[in-house]
Amino acid sequence: LGEKRSLKEEKSKRAILKSRIGKWKIDVCRNGEGLISFENGWPQFVRDHGLSIGDFVVFEHTGNFHFNVSVFDHTACEKEFPFEPKNERHENNTRNPHFVLTMKPSFAHEKARVNIPAEFARSNNLCDKSSVTLRDPRKRPWPEELGLQKIGPFRLVMWKGWHAFYVSNQLKNGDICRFELNPDSLQSATALMDVHISRASV
Question: Which GO terms describe its molecular function (predicted)?
Answer without folding.
Answer: DNA binding
